[in-house]
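Input record (one chain):
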Amino acid sequence: MPLAILVSDPLASMLLVLALLWLAAKLGGELAVRFKLPAVAGQIAVGVVLAALPRFFSNLSGLPNWLGFLKSPDFLHFLNVAENPGAEVLSYIGIVLLMFMVGLESSVSQMMKVGWASTRVAVVGVVGPMALGLVVAYFLLPKGTSYAVDLFIGACLCATSIGISASVLRERNAATSGAGRVVIGAAVIDDVLGLLVLVAVSGLALATAGGGTLPWGDLAKTLGLAFLFLAAALTLGRWLSPFIFAWASRFKGEEILLPFALAFAFVLAYLGSLVGLATIVGAYTAGLILEHHHVGKLQEKEKRSLEEMVQPVVSIFAPLFFVLTGASVETSALLHPTTITMALLLTVAGILGKYVSGYVAGSGLSVPVIGWGMVPRGEVGLIFVSVGRSIHINGQPLLSAQVQAGVLGAILLTTILGPIGLSWVLGRAKGRIK
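The corresponding structure, as predicted from the sequence alone:
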């Protein structure tokens, strides 16, 4: 069959997967916009639908012969976009580019103005959801469950997806507002704190299984490397980047600025990953470093700003990430009544725990914008769950299938409700956000 031939060709299959993802992203975004919701919420939701299609088609019966391909293994494998390596790589590039773009729209001096506010928001945004998550886990899980499981559930709620909130803030032209910068700065700090929580809880779980102790040395090393990287990037990076781009301006060829800027962002993203930070933190830092006077000669030469060059690339790749975030959710595990109860309670705990962080930002900053901006978990929460799934105690995964499904349900709901709430409060403000 032509379909089998196409799917068996990796390159041809990749092209078809990209076509599916881009069309799905645009369809989901369009439906969301028509309902006055942020496009990213529709893109995540359509990803969830894509994740459910293979099971739906495989259970169909009585199909006519000409629709028999819907149940073929090749077609079902094609629909399983979340496990497509090529799509995952491109979506990964998309979120890195998005965070680079968000960084470009701000500056180090602007971020310093909201530094303490972002730190307060980040700390409360980690402690609050984790504490509430522990309470929910204590009352819902069977007696005798390891306290490491309770801690891991709380840890999964403390994450914040900077990419999702940043996308909504940019969509609503609020990324450069004071509240927008606090959200983005807090999410970056949240990434470091969340990483430390993940290391601590993972170490506790392993210590519970093997009778060991907490890896305090690893915690101190991770924290030290993270802050050393950020300090070096924001000092040495700002000093080196004018020389790098002044040298690049001597090139005689065309279209020099965009490749050099993307290379700069990707190198910093990679260096960030070497010290245990998420690559999106390094990419965001690169955007902060590259100020207009660093790339001014190249912008004059090419008659376009760097932001104008990066924007079309972001609009192509970033939606892939949001669709795949939704597609990575195990939809079949979300339908059990106990799972639904856990997901709903953890969602409430996750929203309240993050929302209260807006109250510590300081006077003059919008509490609803900061509170809702910290709500989405997205890919960061999914990473936490995957780590919990990989840890085994006495031959059993730390997080049971039911617990995994409940946490994933909460992550999905906060990932969708977060941008909806943020978009709503930004719409009500109508440009009055400071």
